[in-house]
Design brief:
The protein is an alpha/beta fold. The chain has five helices and five strands. About 35% of the residues lie in helices and about 15% in strands. Helix 3 (about 55-65) runs parallel beside helix 4.
Length: about 150
């Protein structure tokens, strides 16, 4: 089994640190990626981080990950609430996907309360700031190690 994991950041997450710091904090995407690579080392994971603003690029990265990764941690951003295309891609995947969010969508505007992505992921972690990603890596690792015993 490979130890490679894709951490995939969706639209506008490249603006972290400057975009709505009262919601997303002041940490930049680069700082998050550095922390996730370090966290991966503690879990014996090779973490590869990518960010795309365009929906099709996210789909391409997800499809490609099936060729080299054991799983994906994705923050689809606003696409969580709108993208049937990303939802369908994840539903067709042969590797597990964990959805994460920096903020808690359920504590925000009502249109954010529905995720099209959550039902096709093995789980969702939200509201813990950048640490939602780290928790996603831990959950993915445990899921892969325990298999059917995880549930």
């Amino acid at each position: 089994m490979t130890n490679k994991v894709l951490v995939l950041h969706g639209a506008n997450l490249n603006l972290l640190g400057q975009r709505e710091p009262n919601i997303y904090g002041r940490i930049t995407l680069e700082e998050i990626n550095q922390r996730l690579v370090k966290k991966g080392l503690t879990l014996a994971l090779d973490v590869q981080c990518k960010q795309f603003n365009l929906e099709g690029e996210l789909v391409n990265a997800l499809q490609d990950a099936q060729n080299w990764a054991m799983g994906v941690v994705i923050n689809p951003g606003g696409y969580s609430h709108t993208s049937v295309v990303i939802r369908d891609c994840i539903a067709a995947m042969t590797i597990p996907v964990v959805e994460v969010h920096i903020s808690n969508p359920m504590a925000r505007e009502e249109f954010r309360h529905i995720s099209l992505i959550s039902p096709v992921c093995i789980g969702t972690i939200a509201g813990f700031g950048w640490n939602s990603y780290a928790l996603g890596l831990e959950a993915l690792t445990q899921y892969k190690q325990k298999g059917d015993e995880y549930i």
